[in-house]
């Protein structure tokens, strides 16, 4: 069932083509590790290349514990791995940043820096697409978060940018229709050496409250998460039609990376 759903998601979304060079954002957690394994299995039937990219945020007592199994899995599967760090990117670890910034929550910095680092790394490695381990739960949470924040324009570009930019590597989410519980069971059955440790900054995130709400709804009304994501997919074209007309992706005046405004969020956070 797991493999069938995974392959169907890839096929229906036309996510991977013959000869593609796919970057996998590999943290060492269950989602990205299962994604790596599933793509390696798919590769037996469809010739494409896989390269793992691991981002070290510099979170004491957390990231080091997940980087070891990530490296081990890459070696076992014969997959090339590249490691990039926040320290190399901006001269500071996430811990360093949070010691000085009490205004923003940690996830605000981490999300921006991770997206920036993954895109930059994938482009510099000349990879065609960036595969992320976002599962059904993640997708449902993101949909609700954008609705609760009244940000429909962000929903419109959830699956792909509203306009193309040569410096922006296309993203794919092969696990987007797979529940988190199924991924955890799959990882356990396959004996994957996954560190079950939560990021120490997770307690500050708005996502945690939405996750709890969705889990409670799923328990009472099974299928809630699928319905949330499928509802989004039903209106996605309408959202893209509305917001795509005015969407612009230019280049940051400071660093040259893709952004929708004059200065990208990465550079703005660096100056704050």
Mind explaining what this structure looks like?
- This protein is an alpha/beta fold and 272 residues long.
- The protein has a single domain, classed as Rossmann fold (3-Layer(aba) Sandwich), CATH 3.40.50.
- It is 51% helix and 10% strand.
- It contains twelve helices and seven strands.
- Strands 3-2-1-4-5 form a five-stranded parallel beta sheet, sandwiched between helices. Strands 6-7 form a two-stranded antiparallel sheet.
- Helix 2 runs parallel beside helix 3, helix 2 packs across helix 9 and helix 7 crosses helix 11.
- The N and C termini lie far apart (48 Å).
- 31% of the residues are buried.
State the main characteristics.
about 270 residues; Rossmann fold; five-stranded parallel beta sheet; two-stranded antiparallel sheet; 12 helices; 7 strands; globular
CATH level 3 topology: Rossmann fold
**Spans with pLDDT under 50 lasting ≥5 residues?**
none
Percent of residues in β-strands: 5-15%
Biggest sheet architecture: 5 strands, parallel
Topology pattern, helix = H, strand = E:
HEHEHEHHHEHHEHHHEEH
- Specify the structural class: alpha/beta
- Total discrete domains: 1
What does the secondary structure layout of this molecule look like, with pairings?
Blueprint: H1 2-12, E1 21-25, H2 30-42, E2 49-56, H3 63-77, E3 80-85, H4 86-90, H5 94-100, H6 106-124, E4 129-131, H7 136-148, H8 152-156, E5 171-172, H9 180-189, H10 206-220, H11 224-243, E6 250-251, E7 258-259, H12 265-271
Parallel strand pairs: 1-2, 1-4, 2-3, 4-5
Antiparallel strand pairs: 6-7
